[in-house]
Amino acid sequence: MRFIGWLMASVGVACWLGPAPAQACGGFFCGQQPVDQTAERIVFAVGEGTTDMIVQLSFEGKAADFAWVLPLPDVPVEGSLDVFPQSALSALDAATAPVFWFDWSECDDGLRFDASAPPAAEGDGGGVTVHVREEVGPFETVVIEGTDASELVQWLRDNHFRVTEPMLPYIATYVEEGNKLLALRLTPGNDVSDIQPFRLALPGENPSIPIRITSVAAEPEMGILVFVLADRRYETKNWPEVEVDEADVVMDPETRRTNWAALVAQAVDAAGGQGFHTELAEPTDEYVWLLENSFVQDEEQEEARDALLPLLQGHAYMTRLYTRLSAEEMTSDPLFGRAPDSAGDVGRFRMIPAPEGMCDSWFDGGESRPVKPCELATCGAGGLCRDVETDDGTLVEACACVPGATARTTFDPEGRVTVVCQDMRMSFLNPGDRATPEEAPLTDPCVGYDCGPGGECVAMNMTPTCRCDVGWVARGWIDDAGDRQTRCAEPVEPVPYDFYTQRLADLPDELPGGRAVTVVEPDLPTVRGGGCAVAPMSGAAVSGLAWLWLWGLVAVVRRRRP
Amino acid sequence: MRVGHPGVGPWLAGLAVGLAAGCGTGGDGCPGGDDGGGPPWIEVGTGEWRFEPLEDGQDVPLVFGSQGGYHVWVSYRTGGLDPVDVRIEIATEILSHPDTRTASILTRTLPQADEPGVYGQIGWPAVVPQAGCADGEPVEVEVRLEDRHGMAVRDARTVVPHASVEPPECHQSESTE
């Protein structure tokens, strides 16, 4: 019954969302709804006493720079290290992602939808024990153990795994808790394009994500998508479940873009920076049926089907959980466990309000109100979105950042260029650092970088970012050479004063970030007749200039290292 | 040992329901705010996905999280408190080993349990950091709650955790007291 509803809703969406390209396909491999293309995808398949973990590895850069370190409480089950098809993870994501459709019930002449329908141990000398060392797919893998984190890090560096000193406290935290370290790097002859999801099996039925160590290499507002295949619904046990009000969902009827990811990010921020939203919780039988009866068009889809079928067939229930986190929010590891019966099922189909004026546009030839870029974007916990007008008159989203944060050009969940504010402390690879002992110190990526007249460049993990002056906002784009560009610009709507009085949360002592940052308070005017917005230089020119020179600089103080 | 109401359970939950009829939401003078009224109480239990009452000395699994170390599942039921923004402290201590008390402190709005006026959490992973020292030994599990009006309750049970996956060796010396 639910499956019939699912198919019907899919047809409904395809009919009513307009310009989606017609495709002669159906079934598991035809998901057309937008998914978070930038999310880290993790699958936990919980069995009797063991959990299979499949992790997507995302990396941009040179093959020699790729390294991945995962703390493990135990040595993986013998013979369990393997690779997994990326196409299978992508297909699972697309086939289970939330689907939105407009609620036409408020339109006088509109069609009515039935809202209820769908819904090997070896000593290596010193204090480092090498448990596993083998090639798996394109990777050289090691599992090492020790009680001294410095020794472990040195061992990794000596063996050409790229680990820098600021990462040490993060690795030390896990080592002190008795964890082993799994490290991966690409074997010679393999390129970044050869990177595949990695699979391993661990004892236990309550998986966790070592998110604290992820913070050393996290993109701001990083999406994390977790699938738990098990005997029943799972939930996060030590992080809150966050809810998203579907009435707040905005969808551009032309592009089908939604603010779903932004709403999840805002809900997580409102919960204190940690939480997961359950996007789907359903038995797997209908997905198995769909997979078994889907037409596969090529070898890639065949490989994905063959990888997914045993996973889904072997587990009665699937839970899909989503969050968006920035590095400074990754201060504890989420642990997953079975949810109470009262949690119930969650379907993937969501009814959202039709946009203002859409009823008229559809039935009377009128025009619905265009969706502004900031309605679909988020700037993170330390940011505020403001639209900016570009030279050709189009509007793009841009971000004002609180003191202590800087704007980084990145990609939104749909792969579009956007900007997010990033905590300046969370930079673990900085100019002057050495990635491995034999390499030259890293050069400053801000040399020659232009943030525009209202900003200053700050290097974050060797990427130039822009800290804009009070009243200015940062916008981003990719230039012809493929490089990320960020510039400070004037917003269409001013930024309110009180935004700049907000501060980023303190970091735990044991996870101090990658560098010390001293935030100098911005000297904001206390009285501002007739309003509470900050104008940049070209706004009210005199007052804008006054604020600019009063704006205290955020000083980046590098820690002294021996 | 217990502050609040020891040994309460369905009986007192039923009492809380009864009191709810005569006592409105928070701010109207009823102790404990908008929980439905009644004196505050708490019962500590166990269970990953359902509440299971605990007797002192009861055996419980010492669960090996795939990446979360070792923990015991703690569930609790409470009433007579304002469930909004409750300060929650959940602690474990290996009684035979000094300095092993570990507490998680958080502020949450408590979800409603399956009975009106009863709130609680199901399946909190209470970390047992020295798991090798806890295997087969008495461990105290304590839950303290304080609502935003300052109303506080506490309950504790002694459990005996047993690990299914062999934990690391115990390196702590036993208490001589």
Question: Secondary structure elements and their pairing?
Answer:
The complex is a heterodimer of chains A (562) and B (177).
Chain A: H1 2-16, E1 40-46, E2 50-55, E3 68-72, E4 82-83, H2 86-96, E5 99-103, E6 122-123, E7 129-136, E8 139-145, H3 149-158, H4 168-176, E9 180-186, E10 198-203, H5 211-214, E11 222-230, E12 234-236, H6 260-270, E13 277-283, H7 285-292, H8 299-313, E14 317-325, E15 336-338, E16 349-353, H9 358-364, E17 383-389, E18 395-401, E19 405-411, E20 417-423, E21 455-460, E22 463-468, E23 473-478, E24 484-489, E25 495-496, E26 517-518, E27 533-534, H10 541-550, E28 555-556
Parallel strand pairs in A: 1-11, 5-16
Antiparallel strand pairs in A: 1-2, 2-10, 3-9, 4-10, 6-7, 7-8, 8-9, 11-14, 12-15, 13-14, 17-18, 19-20, 21-22, 23-24, 25-27, 26-28
Chain B: H1 10-20, E1 41-46, E2 52-53, E3 58-65, E4 69-79, E5 86-94, E6 102-108, E7 119-127, H2 131-134, E8 139-146, E9 152-163
Parallel strand pairs in B: 3-9
Antiparallel strand pairs in B: 1-2, 1-4, 3-4, 4-7, 5-6, 5-8, 8-9
Q: Please give the alpha-carbon distance between the first and last residues of chain A.
A: 67 Å
Report the strand count of chain A.
Answer: 28
> Structural class of the helices, strands and pairings of chain B?
mainly beta
Tally of helical runs of chain A: 10
Tally of alpha and pi helices of chain B: 2
Could you list the spans of chain B in which at least 5 consecutive residues all have pLDDT below 50? 1-35
Shape type of chain A: globular
Class computed from helices, strands and strand pairing of chain A: alpha+beta
SSE string of chain B, helix = H, strand = E? HEEEEEEEHEE
Major protein interface: A-B, 32 and 23 residues
Radius of gyration of chain B: 17 Å
Q: Summarize the main sheet of chain A.
A: 7 strands, mixed
What gyration radius of chain A follows from the Cα positions, in whole Å? 25 Å
Compute the average pLDDT of chain A: 81
Helix content range of chain A: 10-25%
